[in-house]
Amino acid sequence: MNSAVRAFGAVGGTPRFIEKGKGCRVWDADGNSYIDYVGSWGPLIVGHANPSVLRALRSAISRGTSFGAPTEAEVELADAICSAVPSVEQVRMVSSGTEATMCALRLARAATGRDRVLKFDGCYHGHVDPLLVAAGSGVATLGVPGSVGVPSAFTDLTVQAPYNDLAAVDSAFARWGREIACVLVEPVAGNMGCILPVPGFLEGLRALCDRHGALLVFDEVMTGFRVAYGGAQQLFGVRPDLTCLGKVVGGGLPAAAFGGRRDLMQQIAPAGPVFQAGTLSGNPLAMAAGRATLELLRRPGVYPTLAARGNALVDGLADIAREQGIEFTTAAIGGMFGFYFHPGPVTGFEEAKKSRSDRFRAFFHAMLEQGVYLAPSPYEAGFVSTAHRPADIEATLSAARVAFRRAARVRTGTSR
Ligand SMILES: *Cc1c(COP(=O)(O)O)cnc(C)c1O
């Protein structure tokens, strides 16, 4: 098991070993097929084994796998990112979302000469030591506050606030205003289910950062090219100083990026004094897959279609839950969605944690048995791809009718 969240720890049972994927489906080693709403945890927005992505990869791989020197492909992907994401003027490629947030934090600290970072309960920014505090899905699911192996000295500079709570951010600034280098936030939270920013939250963060001389950093590793082509910042019209990207931008290969204002990015070596490097950064295969994916996403109608599929799914689920008298609430935006066995509204980690995980477990396994592959945790967002057709959503909802009945039978059990 190479990543904690895959281990079915929150739901029990045996993780499926996947042999292949095509479109919106995956096949396990026992020959069962599933409609997949995990999508490799976000990257596969154009579906598994997409022909255009495979073609780009074949062409790239025939020329070699890695050079550790500049290539045209990384410049092309950088150009595509800068044209797409409103606040990004310059960008640096890295190999994982974790690396992107780690680098953005280092840059924010360097640029401001301040050490503290403010993050939100239930937001996950990769397993970066100082950010592994109340870090959502994997961590919350495992019920571990942060992780052992992280010295408390490494998290002493991390300030926490509840998501969607501007007053809490205001008081954090009142207390540590001159020490906070940046506010780091998932502009749509996707690691405690799916939680939208309440109106004014992102704008309020922008204003508070400006007032106190801190940088605003959007972690769009999940939301970038997922909720809209230009990410959540395009959708909500708020410009961060720095942006972290990953998942979709690598097209299913290991690539991620961080970027933002040119004057900030110019502080990274070799142009500036902030050290940053990576053996496989800008890997030509990953660049090819990312580029091919973005090319497909630029076509008109992609995001409205993704949103229509996501909404059809969660609205359908909510209807069935209501018919069966089950407390349930949902959210969806662009190609991501979430649901809770909780009456809602869910605006932060406190409510998300009250979701009935015993019901989720029953629901999850009933769906899996019927050929629907959901993330094995009540705190994960789900993903639709351009390969999900209305018939796939219908089939999912038919399975859900059975799964909700199974979940409703769970009467006892803890709420966690
Ligand atoms: C997945 C994720 C990360 C971490 O990315 P990895 O590539 O898994 O290291 C960081 N931030 C957010 C918001 C994510 O969803």
Polypeptide structure, described:
With 416 residues, this protein is an alpha/beta fold. It has 2 domains: 4-49 and 301-408, Aspartate Aminotransferase, domain 1, CATH 3.90.1150; 51-297, Aspartate Aminotransferase, domain 2 (3-Layer(aba) Sandwich). The chain is built from 14 helices and 14 strands. It has helices at residues 51-61, 72-84, 97-112, 137-142, 152-155, 166-176, 201-212, 231-236, 262-265, 284-297, 302-323, 349-352, 357-369, 390-408; strands spanning 18-22, 25-28, 33-36, 90-94, 116-120, 158-161, 180-185, 215-219, 242-245, 256-260, 329-333, 336-340, 372-373, 382-383. The strands form 3 sheets. It has a 7-stranded mixed sheet, with helices on both faces. A 4-stranded mixed sheet has the order 1-2-3-13. Strands 11-12-14 form a 3-stranded antiparallel sheet, with helices on one face. Strand 2 (25-28) and strand 3 form a beta hairpin. Helix 1 (51-61) packs antiparallel against helix 10 (284-297), helix 6 (166-176) runs parallel beside helix 7 (201-212) and helix 11 (302-323) runs parallel beside helix 14 (390-408). It is globular. The mean pLDDT is 95. The protein binds pyridoxal-5'-phosphate. Pyridoxal-5'-phosphate binds next to helix 3.
SSE topology sketch:
Blueprint: E1 18-22, E2 25-28, E3 33-36, H1 51-61, H2 72-84, E4 90-94, H3 97-112, E5 116-120, H4 137-142, H5 152-155, E6 158-161, H6 166-176, E7 180-185, H7 201-212, E8 215-219, H8 231-236, E9 242-245, E10 256-260, H9 262-265, H10 284-297, H11 302-323, E11 329-333, E12 336-340, H12 349-352, H13 357-369, E13 372-373, E14 382-383, H14 390-408
Parallel strand pairs: 3-13, 5-6, 5-7, 7-8, 8-9
Antiparallel strand pairs: 1-2, 2-3, 4-10, 9-10, 11-12, 12-14
Helix pairs in contact: 1-10, 2-10, 6-7, 11-14, 13-14
Bound molecules: pyridoxal-5'-phosphate.
